Amino acid sequence: MPAEQPETAQALPRVLPHEAIQRRPPRRPWGAIALFLTPALFFYFAFIIYPVLMTFYNSIHTLRMDLGMVYEYVGFEHFREILREDDVFWKAAGNSMTWAILAPIVDIPLALTLAVILYSKVPLARFFRTVWFTPLLMSYPVVGVIWLWVYNYDWGMANLVLRAVGLGQYAQAWLASPTTALPALILVTTWMFAGFNMVVMLAAIHAIPQEYAEAARVDGANTWQRLIHIIVPLLRPTMVNLAILDFIGKMKQFALVWVMTRGGPMWGTETVATYVIKRAFEWKTLDLGYPSAIAVIWFVIIFGLSVGLTRFLQRREALEF
Amino acid sequence: MPARLIRGVLLIPVLMYTAFSAGPYLWTAMMSLRTTDEIYRNHYGLPIPPHPWKFYTAWTEFGYATYFRNSAIVAVVAVTLITIFGAMAGYGFARRRYAFPLREPVFLMLFLSVMFPPQIMILALFQILINYKLFNTLAGLILVYVATELPVTIYLLRAFFAQIPQELEEAARIDGCGDWAMFWRVMFPIALPAVATTAILNLIYFWNEFLYAVVFITKQEIRTLPLAIQFLVSDQYFDIGMLATGLMIATLPVLVLYLFLSEWFVKGMTAGAIKG
């Protein structure tokens, strides 16, 4: 995302002579610059840049925690093994991708529907908005435990509802089967983020100038036509932005899986993020190099997609409201 | 009349979604006031009679007092540090007076790190914290939290500081205001709405953070609430009632604040939208 133009660029034209004298910077206040930026840059270099570089370095080494962290150079061996031989990595990458693609497909239309409904002056709209937003304020472990209960076979809410509406034959242990576990987790993130996506879209709808809707009304467009031909097209940038955000967020998904399924059953919910942590701390190899290589691969993909998608779309103003 | 009818019809999906959205948490809230025995007899019974003493038991006997204290220390210290350092840097990156040749590239680099997935740092951070004896300490966790949220905080505050009119700064300077006084007494107070927004965003993030906590904290007595809950799920899997009480302890502070400041919360959380 390109940064906003700082005021340097816009403030220069039409400078009157006396102002010019006054505004000429006497000398750069290096002391003040250092004072304001040093703490932040210290944190940035010590805890972000340095570890990132270290991870790249680790990824071409073997680094056994049980053998005193001695570095042993292996070149690109880890990368070859990950890409050629590691079935679990490919399974995890597939799951992360599935999650990242399915989530926006479900979340964005749902959020749009909710936003449009609230916009049409449903009573108590503020109350509903407040309630729908709440799940986002809970931590993943809290959400995970609650949904472990919801998906409980015997007494969980999910099966309770199915049995209540006569679909009892579909009641099942949702997290126990490799085919249903991942969709079940995706539904949980939808539950968490729908309110958030809805709020952003609602704000975008409110930002649409009233005149557009008025003009369409004068031209005889009914509510539905105004929705389809005016509101939805104008919301497109917002929807695309939210979809990208959702996509990237799901590519990084770790906590919900860690709490609810630990990647199981049969790697059915393993994500790249959980696999990195597992390989580092729960694998008999106890090697930090291999998971670092996985992290590097995933970093390149996520960072490339983030920068690529946002540059390609270049519509950041849609999120500023 | 038709308009009113349409609104009535629209209420049906709204109520259905509200049940989906609020149902699981309300169910948990009810269980938090019931004993596990009562829950196993009927999972959906109302908390009659309620057992509020369960909160006291969870607090004293199940360690929630410790976990709560740890989470509070981490969140409060980290928010304080990040707010001060973030505002200073946001101000330094925003104002024309502090421009220097490579400032914009440095800022862009800082901003790009918003998109870094935590995995690219976490294993190396683990090594670094061990080397500096910060592994398994709340201080280490706080440092990592401040570092990882600083870029987005600076980004948001810089945008705000950049909008403050130049005339104001000049007026204060003519009155003899130095650089620090300019920031602390003039600019920071003006930026308070934006600062509060980022503070709330960060507070929620730190209170709920799980990934770094799970890797950097292995000692029981310094677990934060999210971490503690993850362990309690496996340790007392069948004591649903007590676990539900614990979930309420972990969420109520945030939800009560949200009740009073919901507009600020929504603003803060969506301002962080670029972070995802």
Keywords:
heterodimer; A: mainly alpha; MetI-like fold; 2 strands; globular; B: 276 residues; mainly alpha; 0% strand
Summarize the structure.
Chain A is mainly α and 321 residues long. Chain A contains 14 helices and two strands, in the order αααββααααααααααα.
Describe it for me?
The complex is a heterodimer of chains A (321) and B (276). With 321 residues, chain A is mainly alpha-helical. Chain A has a domain at 101-272: MetI-like fold. Chain A is built from 14 helices and two strands; from the N terminus they run αααββααααααααααα. Chain A has a two-stranded antiparallel ribbon. In chain A, helix 5 (87-119) packs antiparallel against helix 11 and helix 13 runs antiparallel to helix 14. Chain A starts with 6 loop residues before the first helix and ends in an 8-residue tail after the last helix. Chain B is 77% helix and 0% strand. The longest helix of chain B is centred in the first third of the chain and has 31 residues, at 2-32. The mean pLDDT of chain B is 90. Chains A and B meet through helix 3, helix 5, helix 6, helix 7 and helix 9 of A and helix 1, helix 4, helix 5, helix 6 and helix 7 of B.
